[in-house]
Amino acid sequence: MTRAGATLRQRVTELGTTLREMGLSVGIDAQALALHSLTAVGLDDAEDIRLSLRAVYARTRSAQIIFDEVYPRWLRGEHLKPEPEPAGPGGEDGKAETADVSQPPRALGRGGDAADGEAVSASPARYSPAASQGLGPGTPRAQVGMSDALRDAATFLAALRSGDGRRRRAGRRGDLDLRRSLRGAHTTAGEIMHLHRRRRRPRPPRVILLCDFSRSMAGEDAEVVRLAQALVRRSRRTEVFAFSTELRRITQRLRRREGARALLDLGFAYGGGTRIGLSLHQFVRGWGPRLLGADSVVLIVSDGLDTGETTLLRGAMAAIRAGAGRIFWLSPLAGTPGYQPVQGGVRAALPYCDAFGDARDPQALTKLVHPLRQGRYPS
User: Fold this and answer.
1) Listed range (146-155, 221-230, 366-375) with the worst mean pLDDT
2) How is the chain split into domains, by residue range?
3) What kind of fold does domain 206-373 have according to CATH?
4) Any bridge partners for residue 169, and if so which?
5) Assuming Cys at both sites, which of 130, 156, 281, 378 could form a disulfide with 316, CB separation 3.0 to 4.6 Å?
6) What's the count of helices (H) and strands (E) in the chain, helices before strands?
7) pTM score, two decimals?
8) Other Cβ atoms closer than 10 A to 148
9) CA–CA separation, 268 vs 94, rounded Å?
10) Which has the closest alpha carbon to 314: 264, 354, 350, 339?
11) Which of 309, 307, 353, 305 shows the shortest CA–CA distance to 333?
């Protein structure tokens, strides 16, 4: 075997091993088939290589989403070994996951904008959220404020639910549940004394959360991650993306681990400059066709301090507006006394948004949909 062939085998095997460790069904036969497919299509066309490996390694929709996240990193030669999972409720210490969500990992090293080489220190703590809520020193910081965030997310999803799903549940109104009615008659000598009914469960909307983790948002990591975790835990139809000068999907990271660990190793999607327009454009091109729809709700969390072209941002917002049902924007600056939306990114995006709110408000999501619940938003 030539040196080039051995290198190719090693690289393809590394990709398959990483995908298997992330939960995909990738065995030795799949590894061999991947190498055979590359031999058949050749190595001249990069898109043919990607599609060939995708067809072999990712045969379901969920697997394809993971593959699309991992493949660009593999192509750039980044370190792909998944980080060890934190101890869950059944771990050795019997405690819930306790990673520190209030301490952002910005001092641990990160990818940034190519033009931004200066070091940035971690922001100092401004107050103690645990003390303000009466929590003891042993309370995991990842849980501080999470109950409020979960309630806020539940209200948000309930107000934006889009029709009824396929599954049914017991209710006072709805179709006759003959099976349950007959089962209940067993205790009354075969006489049906009560007619049970069932109705379709309300279907939550598809929420797309686009989070700005650039340098200008350095002090807001804890609040943004808590918001994202609450939405992910409340609905399986939530997708979360991080962006700085590029876009990266972090949904699976938030489902697998707690807090700030989800922000490690994000490359140029974390801690650099702010390219809101470019990042939203990447979302529209790469994820828009599969995620945007009439029941989609796009929630952007950013201070709007965009250093890119506002023309690109307007184009991306127009495309999202055409495909999504609702667009909301949360800014950590909105609660500042005397605040005016004069930032370039905010001014360019506001005409396409249904509502604008304060990202630091514990009831930010509830306040976004409050006018909707009162029928004041156009349908």
Assistant:
1) 366-375
2) 3-76, 167-202, 206-373
3) Rossmann fold (3.40.50)
4) 199
5) 281
6) 14, 9
7) 0.58
8) 14
9) 36
10) 350
11) 305
